[in-house]
Specification:
By secondary structure, the chain is of the alpha/beta class. Helices cover 40% and strands 24% of the residues. It folds into two domains: 1-112 and 302-363, Rossmann fold (3-Layer(aba) Sandwich), CATH 3.40.50; 122-300, RecF/RecN/SMC, N-terminal domain (Glutathione S-transferase Yfyf (Class Pi), Chain A, domain 2, Up-down Bundle), CATH 1.20.1050.90. It is built from nine helices and 15 strands. The strands form three sheets. A six-stranded antiparallel beta sheet has the order 2-1-4-5-6-7, covered by helices on one side. The relative contact order is 0.17.
Length: 363
């Protein structure tokens, strides 16, 4: 899979931009605040209909305009797929092959991406929400049913929390009905996640063992707020946990257990990765990203597009080499950087763009 062409209209500091890319490595070079990350973000947005930098779509619209549109021409296997997203004050329109998509899950997964940005280096020590977001984005691209189950779960969760906040006298029968629905969708969400983490660990460990010169293995543990006991299925365990947590939930007026509270833990040679060195953290995160690429290829049949947002300077020559070895001639890659000086062993065949004040020049 690779993106041949991208068109932006009123996106951030790009009033109008039409640009063509190479199927291999594309490098955007420019000083800070010139628009190189905006360009990378637009590719991410075209894939996932969301930004990795802001929750508000309004932030994406050029400050002098009221709408924004993005279009791309995607190569998949033996076909070309046009993609379009239009944002106005009336809402969002997404199109695949010029056909409007009724549901988000019908659009997401058409073009898959793996993003490696500086904030990913906080994945190990950062908040649990970062790790849940990591799962949701990657799993959502390769399993549309996961997105559907997660959306349904979040809808019931919102209903339950709203009810708890709106009344001082809880109807336990009504709450039990909500609990059953929450357990239905929540157990499915957790089952998807548990399988994904199992598959991710297998792939990530291969890469990490290689990067560490065969000295280290990694393990990923899914930390569920639902206590699983032998002989009890996941859904029943969720129902049981909700019952145990009921008085707490009524008092605090929110839901204390479920996938929205779950987390991940990383281990290097069975040591908690929180206590590992900065270099080990970089190797672990790099291994996860390389594993994501392989899992998407295994699941969809196409390699995803790789977005490297100003992270190559964070990797030493050894880690850069391992990354480039794994993607060369297989994965279309976009790199943002302030300088080419710290990039080692780039292939000769790259497409290089200079960006200044929203003006893109191919070199």
């Amino acid at each position: 899979m690779w993106l041949e062409r991208l068109s932006l209209h009123h996106y951030r500091n790009y009033k109008n931009l039409d640009i063509e890319f190479a199927p291999g490595i594309n490098v955007f070079v420019g000083q800070n605040a010139q628009g190189k990350t905006n360009l990378l973000e637009s590719i991410y947005f075209l894939s996932l209909t969301r930004s990795h930098r802001t929750r508000s779509d309004k932030d994406l619209i050029n400050f002098t305009e009221k709408d924004v549109s993005l279009s791309g021409l995607l190569h998949k296997s033996n076909s070309k797929v046009p993609l379009d997203i239009i944002l106005t004050d009336k809402g969002r329109v997404t199109k695949v092959n010029h056909l409007k998509q009724a549901k988000l899950s019908d659009y997401i997964g058409t073009m898959t991406v793996v993003l490696f940005a500086p904030e990913d280096l906080q994945l190990i020590k950062g908040s649990p929400s970062l790790r849940r977001k990591f799962i949701d984005i990657d799993l959502g691209q390769i399993k549309t049913l996961y997105l559907s189950d997660l959306s349904s779960y979040n809808h019931v969760l919102k209903q339950r929390n709203s009810y708890l906040k709106s009344t001082d006298k809880v109807d336990t029968i009504f709450l039990s009905v909500l609990d059953e629905q929450l357990a239905d969708f929540g157990s499915r969400v957790m089952e998807h996640r548990l399988q994904f983490i199992k598959d991710l660990q297998i792939e990530a460990d291969k890469h990490h063992h290689n990067i560490s010169n065969k000295l280290e293995h990694i393990r990923i543990e899914y930390l569920s707020s639902v206590k699983l006991t032998e002989g009890v299925n996941l859904r029943q365990a969720f129902v049981n946990q909700l019952e145990k947590s009921r008085q707490r939930d009524i008092f605090k007026k929110n839901t204390g257990v479920g996938p929205h509270r779950d987390d991940l833990a990383f281990f290097i040679n069975d040591m908690d990765a929180n206590f590992a060195s900065q270099g080990q953290h970089r190797s672990l995160i790099l291994s996860l990203k390389m594993a994501e690429i392989e899992l998407i290829k295994q699941t969809t049949g196409d390699y995803p597009i790789l977005l490297l947002d100003d992270v190559m300077s964070e990797l030493d020559n050894h880690r850069q080499t391992k990354l480039l070895e794994s993607i060369t001639d297989k994965v279309q890659t976009f790199i943002t950087t302030t300088s080419l000086d710290h990039l080692s062993k780039l292939p000769n065949e790259i497409k290089h763009f200079s960006i200044e004040a929203g003006v893109v020049i191919e070199n």
